[in-house]
Amino acid sequence: MQPSYVTDIKPVLKSFVIWVFSDGRKGHESQTRGLLNALVKLNKSRFAVESYWVTKQTPNAHLTTYPHPDLILGAGHATHFPMLRAKILFGGVTVVLMKPSIPSIFFDMVFVPHHDSCENFGNVYATIGVLNTITRSHPNASEGTILLGGASRHFQWDTDRIAQQVKEVCDSKTDRVWNVCDSPRSPDELLSKIQDSPNIRKYPWRDTDEHFISFLLSTSSEIWVSCDSVSMLYEAVSTGVPVGVFELESRKRSNKILRGLKELATQGHIQFSHDGLTLKLRSELESQLSESTRCAELVTRYVIKNKLA
Fold first, then answer.
1. Which of 45, 76, 123, 220 is the most buried (most CB within 10 A)?
2. What's the CA gap between 181 and 202, in Å, rounded?
3. Cβ atoms within 10 Å, residue 115
4. d(CA 213, CA 26)
5. In 48-146, which residue ranges form alpha helices assigned H by DSSP?
6. What is the average per-residue pLDDT within 88-112?
């Protein structure tokens, strides 16, 4: 069981006010919502958590109507200076969920994916992948999901190789219905290259949305993801079910994404296709990657200590 970082600290907040700065990008919003949801869940029995979203369209004068923030949270380069300005004017702990475009020393806490390098002034915390809103799944033993990417600066895309790996997985487990989804980066012909089969259902990305993908992830008993699809892969790992990775050739000798995947494989969170198509079952502790919860505990502890200072 994960140790708690906050239960040994006496609460000093009547409420926990969070200002969330958004640049409007779905990927960044997923990260901030992932941490925000974890903060609410972690602290709901200790004090009320109030969140206020600040976008490009939010008038500066409107900020004066919000309660002063205990925490200023954001992801995306466009949020960095507005976050710092808010801290100067209204106070609060600043938490940024990415490698910032300005020196990290300007922020109180910086959460950076472990495959990125970032100058650390004692305020940088490595995360296994990016945070997200995916939680523990309720798997259906007869359902599996396959998520496919496409053109990438880290990997050499090979449609035929991916289609063959998909076929091998689906043929080896005919007792399971496989939901196969492509993505905006996928070549147009990708799904048509995957041989039709009674246990394969294909879903073009244009016919789905992020809620559909989240539903598939939450109900699948096994998930396979192409190695270029980093965000989808970490979301899959967060479900706690076995996750396999379809492999592609690296474009570079030094590939930070591939290094991160190899680390995940070593820790038992994923399995590469070359290691076999039968994924090993793991205990809940080993299989579920609760990074959002871990980060929420670290943030809560820091905010409370800041109040006590």
1. 220
2. 6
3. 18
4. 14
5. 60-63, 80-90
6. 94
- Answer yes or no: are the C-beta atoms of 232 and 208 closer than 8 Å: no
Q: Is the pLDDT of residue 290 over 80?
A: no
Q: What is the pLDDT of residue 132?
A: 82
DSSP letters of 31-67? Answer: HHHHHHHHHHHHHTTTSEEEEEEE-TTS-HHHHTTSP
Bridge-based pairing of strands 243-246 and 143-147 is unpaired
Instruction: Give the burial string for 3-15 (b: 16+ CB within 10 Å, else e).
Output: eebbeeeeeebee
Q: What share of the chain is helix, strand, coil (3-state, %, to 5)?
A: 35, 20, 45
Beta strands of 70-188 (E only): which ranges? 71-74, 93-96, 109-113, 124-127, 143-147, 155-156, 177-181
178 contacts 203 by C-beta, under 8 angstroms: no
Give me the count of residues in the chain.
309
Q: Of 43, 52, 36, whose CA–CA distance to 11 is shortest?
A: 43
Q: Are 233 and 270 in contact (CB under 8 A)?
A: yes
Q: What pLDDT, on the 0 to 100 scale, is given for residue 144? A: 97
From the number of C-beta atoms within 10 Å of its C-beta (0-12, 13-18, 19+), residue 236 rates as buried
Is residue 143 a contact partner of residue 124, using CB atoms and an 8 Å limit?
no
Beta strands 200-203; 124-127: pairing state: unpaired
Closest CA to 46 of 13, 18, 70: 13
pTM of the shown model = 0.75
DSSP-derived letter for residue 93 is E
